[in-house]
Design a protein that fits this description.
The chain has 11 helices and 9 strands. It is an alpha/beta fold. It is globular.
Amino acid sequence: MIMNRIIFFFFYIGINLFRIIPFFLLYIMAWKVYIILFYVLGYRKKVVVDNLTKSFPDKNKQEIKSITKAFYRDNLSPIFAEGLKGFTMSHKQFQKRYIVKNPEILDVYFEKGQDVIALATHYGNWEWGVQSLDAQIKHQAAALYKPMSNPIVEKYSKNLREKFGMHLVSIADTRVYFEKKKEKPTLYIMAADQSPSNTEKAYWVNFLGRNTPCLHGPENYAKFNNLPTVFFDLKRAKRGYYEMEIKKLIDKPLETEPGEITQKYMDLLAEDIKQDQKNWLWSHKRWKHA
């Protein structure tokens, strides 16, 4: 308990220091983080290089090295800094820097009182989307997430991330939240592009030319509740600015084959990655299950 309080104290001080740091200094800090992660610590560099090499076998070592550096310099380090800054950003700042281009695509479902499942990814800055999305759509936005191990930090950070209307739901409470009666239609947001812990239940699909296990939850919940599914296509317009396009994925999940929703989801993610390889979270051990 004492250690949790000590950690919270430094977390609290650090977060509130970011409140007064202007964005131009934020990205100077991000550059320093890049130097530390890439050159000093070599943070998960072997994982990143292995993932890139096997995903793009047509690229030579120099090209892989170039993408690796760009991943740390232009994606991972800025996202780390932006994530901390996001805890204290204003509504106006979010509305300027994270834009949903076509929120009206969800309106047809809202008018019918219909919930929707949104499949997001760890491509670009997903954290700002958690805090800015609810204010830009008619649905109640609810993001499923894994809580932090420190309960004090968890409670404080959850309150900050929900300050503009988003509901954060622990993955342990997913089923209960789906069944809970709500005041208005809900958009359930799931970032399902990470490695599943249970490969027996996983859907295996082709992703970047590799046989890949995927979390079964999003597709199963879509079918069990007969909910339409959309894809969040996020792009970095420029440093510190993001645009997200909502794309329809499946309108009638009960008419799909097993794994079809998951494959379409991963196909769209693969298209984004091929357009700009550095922006996905390559430091995650995505293919640890064979």
